[in-house]
Amino acid sequence: MEGFLKFPSEEIWQLLSTLKPETPAAWGIMSAQNMVEHLILPLKIAQGELKVSVVTPEDKVERVKQIMLLGPAPLKKGFAAPFLPEGKLPHQFPNLDLAIAELKREVASFISFYETYQGESISHPVFGPLNKEEWHLFQSKHFTHHFTQFGLL
Questions:
Q1: Residue 83 lies in a domain
Q2: Is residue 1 part of a domain?
Q3: Which parts of the chain sit beneath pLDDT 70?
Q4: Measured CA angle at 100 (ends 146, 7), to 5 deg
Q5: 123 forms bridges with which residues in the sheet?
Q6: Contact 26, 150 (CB under 8 A)
Q7: Phi, psi for residue 45 in degrees, rounded to 5
Q8: Does residue 82 sit within a domain?
Q9: Does the model's pTM come out above 0.90?
Q10: What pLDDT does residue 81 have?
Q11: 27, 70, 134, 144: least surrounded by Cβ within 10 Å?
């Protein structure tokens, strides 16, 4: 989709190489490392590694998906992931470099998963069941959202 980072792409890693632990967020409470670790979670959800419930009412899922995911608008600032607790989460990795390395591994795993299971649909907590193309679109919008948050775009 026009105006968003291509997912996956080498540009993601080039931009992340400029991120520093002290890079401030333009909004929100995450640190740079929190953001990178946060990007890992939907990749795990998309592969069925992390199970989450769909929080959008069933009769509204398709409309929310059409507007927020398939529509041209970016993800909204301050939108809280419904499956995460409130507040800043503790770091999962000792430092930013190790978090980025894990993100690379998880992106590779995501790509491999959808090469193997091309017809698979796995539920997103807001948008319900997503296929490979929809998960790619979500990742594109999600990475763009957080890269903008940290001034990488």
A1: no
A2: no
A3: none
A4: 55
A5: 129
A6: yes
A7: -60, -45
A8: no
A9: yes
A10: 76
A11: 27
DSSP 8-state secondary structure symbol assigned to residue 90: P
The answer as to whether 28 is a domain residue is yes
pLDDT for the residue 141: 97
pLDDT tens sequence across 89-111: 899 999 999 999 999 999 999 99
Distances, alpha carbon 135 to alpha carbons 29, 30, 64, 152, in Å? 25, 23, 15, 22
Total structural domains in the chain?
1
User: At 122, is the secondary structure helix, strand, or coil?
Assistant: strand
What are the tens digits of pLDDT across the range 51-70? 999 999 999 999 999 999 99
* Residue-number span of the structural domain to which 116 is assigned: 10-75+91-149
Length of the chain as a residue count: 153
- How many CB atoms sit inside 10 A of residue 49's CB? 14
Dist. CA 137–CA 148, nearest whole Å = 16
Beta bridge partners of 128: 124
Question: CA dist 19 to 15, 33, 49, 105, 140, Å?
Answer: 7, 9, 27, 18, 18
State residue 79's pLDDT score: 78
| CATH code of residue 106 | 1.20.120
